[in-house]
Amino acid sequence: MDYLLSLLDSVVGNPELARLLFVSAVGLSAVLALVTVGLLVVGLQSPLQRRLNVLKRGHASVGRAAPSSLQLMLEQVGERFAGNQDWHNSPTRTLLVHAGYRQPSAAQAYWAARLLLILVLVGIAVLVLPFLKGASFLQASLLLVGAAGVGWIVPAVYVDKRKQARMRSLRAAFPDALDLLVVCVESGLALPQSIERVAEELSVSHGELAEELALVNAEIRAGISSTEALRHLADRTGLEDINGLVSLLAQSIRFGTSVADTLRIYAEEFRDRRTQAAEEQAAKLGTKLIFPLIFCLWPSFFLVVIGPVIVGVLKAFGRL
């Protein structure tokens, strides 16, 4: 406490004014904290408000557990922080869907997590400041700003990493699903039944893609056309391969051509693209090995091969 007062006094230059500003800041922070906690507690403790929040966010689906108090609190904080924006068409919503968060309140929880993490890290930095003896006001400010920046960036980095990992998993599972889909369609099954069978077969080895295909089948059963359901699949996954498949199937269904032939042709083209991608990665291998060879292997090779020769030359000339 005294350390913070001394820092504020060094900036203001007036001890009384610094004390007044410090007391005002502490009082305002306490009032805001009490008001925030009070609003959250009232909203969470009221059964009517809890039920309305559950119904509003679409949690009352069959077979899904009720949200926890922490989840409702994050949603409320995120909703107050983010406002009434259209999250359905926002880039944040797209990022979260690609990362696997399809809940209606995912955007609110995401913003709430970023805000709360900032407050937690800034609070920890404030507690650490008295132990940093000799730190100037600029250094303390940089520490607080750095803590706030870390709290703002870490959730975004985590969601982006999760998105990349999920897209890699879906991309690795897509060839197997495509081959199984070709087999099912050529055996006489319709496209919805083929998608359902492929989802059942992939439920063990590739659970994420199986879940997406099961959702496609559920949309088709609900009355959505196969083309629209597959387009929704491409939007949820963000994979270009699925976008190409959706375009080909849409043309096949529109012009009445054979779906089996379309899938077989796309499977062959996909194998060719996968082979070309592997050849491209192999061609880049030689260039990527230049830096490890120069900075890791070449110095050791120089010491082993050229080192004894240099020592012999120095001995011959009487330097050693």
Automatic annotation (TrEMBL):
InterPro entries: T2SS_GspF_dom. Keywords: Cell membrane, Membrane, Transmembrane, Transmembrane helix. Pfam families: T2SSF (PF00482). The keyword Membrane applies. One of its GO terms (cellular component) is plasma membrane. It is found in: Cell membrane. Its main location: membrane. The chain crosses the membrane at residues 20-42, 111-132, 138-159, 289-314. Residues 178-306 form the Type II secretion system protein GspF domain. It comes from the Bacteria. It is a multi-pass membrane protein. This is Tight adherence protein C.
